Amino acid sequence: IYTGGTFGMMRNTVGSLVPFDFSNMVDHLPTIKNLSLNIDVIEFEKPIDSANINPEHWQLMAALIESNYQDFDGFVILHGTDTMAFSASALSFMLEGLSKPVILTGAQLPISEPRSDARENLITAIEIAAAKENGKPIVPEVAIFFDYELLRGNRSKKVESMQFDAFDSGNYPALAKAGVKIDFNRSAILSVNTEKSLSVRKKFDSSIALIKLYPGISNAYLHAVIRTEGLKALIIETYGSGNAPTDTYLLTILAEAVKKGIIVLNISQCQGGRVTQGKYETSKTLDEIGVIGGLDLTTEAAVTKLMFLLGNFPQEVVRTKVIENFAGELTI
Asked: Residue 191 burial by CB count (10 A; 0-12/13-18/19+): exposed, middle or buried?
C-alpha cells in the first residue's frame, strides 16, 4: 500500500522529484521477482507527504487492510517517515484481532537516488510480511522496518532526520534484525490467537491537547490550552520519571481540568524509561489531583490511543482503558 512520502520519488526530466507509478514497481525493483511472491500494489489516489497525515488517512489504510485481509498473507505500507510512528500506533489499536503482519517502511532518500535506502527497506519488509513458521505468520502485528531493524509500531519514535537509522524503540527490544539472514526475536513478538477474526474500529476523536513542559512555561499558555472549548483529554510531557514543577498555578489548573472531567495523562519527555508517578515529591501531587501516570507510552502511542479510545468508548471508561495494554504499547 503506497501512501506517499520520500520513498516513491523519482527525478523528472527537469530534475524535480515526483512520485513514480507504483503499478510498475517491478520495473524499478527487478529484485522483487526473485522473492517468488505474488504481490499486489494499491496506491492512494493522491499520494501525500506524511506531514499531512491525519485520522482520515489511518481510516483509509485500515479499510484497505480490512477489505483485502482474506486474500493476502501480509501487508506492507510505504509511508513517509515524519508521521510513520503515529500511523503505526494508530493502526495497532484499530486492527483488533490482527493475526497477520502489517509492516510500515519508507526511506530517507528517494528510490531514484543511487545511495537510497528504499530498496533494502522495501524488499526486507516484504520478506518479513511473507515470513511464516509452521504455516503461521512470524510477526502478526503492526511493525516498522527501517535500517535493518524491525520495531514494534506503537513503541517506535522517529529519532533521526539525517541518518538512515531513523527510528528507535527505547523501551522495547527490536522484533528482528536483518543481516545475512533475518534474525527474529521471537520472545519479543506478540503472541496472538490466529483463529480470532479481524475487527476494525475506525472512529477517532481528536479533542485532545499536548503540552510539553519546559522551564518558564507561561501561565497564560497553560490557561489557554486547558480551557480550550470541547477539550476531552490532555497529555503532559513531563521531565524524567514523570516530574513536573510544583508551581501552584500549574497544579491548580490541572486539578481544575480533572474536576471538569478532562483526562490528564502524564508521559515522559525521555526516549527511554517510564513515568513512576509519586516517586518524587514533584510528581506526588500530580497523582493526588487525579493525573494518570502513562507508564512507558510514547507520545505517538499516547496521542493516537487517546484519539482512538475517545472515538470508541464513553469518556469515563477511557480513564481506565488508557493504561490498559491493547497491542503491546506499554509495560504494565
From this structure: exposed
Polymer length in residues for the chain: 332
Full-model pTM: 0.93
134 DSSP assignment: T
CA of 278: how far to CAs of 233, 243, 274, in Å?
21, 9, 12
Of residues 3, 6, 124, 298, which has the active-site annotation? 6
To 10 degrees, what angle do helices 84-94 and 299-312 make? 40
Per-residue model confidence as pLDDT tens digits over 121-178: 999 999 999 999 999 999 999 999 999 999 999 999 999 988 888 899 999 999 999 9
- pLDDT tens-place string over residues 236-274: 999 999 999 988 899 999 999 999 999 999 999 999 889
Give which of 275, 280, 290 is closest to 237, Cα–Cα. 275
**Helices 55-68, 84-94: crossing angle, 10 deg rounding:** 50
Q: pLDDT tens digit string along 40-71? A: 989 888 888 889 999 999 999 999 999 999 99
6 is catalytic: yes
Which DSSP category does 154 fall into? Answer: G
SS3 249: helix
Q: What is the DSSP string of 23-86?
A: GGHHHH-GGGGGG-------B-SS---GGG--HHHHHHHHHHHHHHGGG-S-EEEE--STTHHH
Q: Rounded CA gap, 323 and 295, in Å?
A: 8
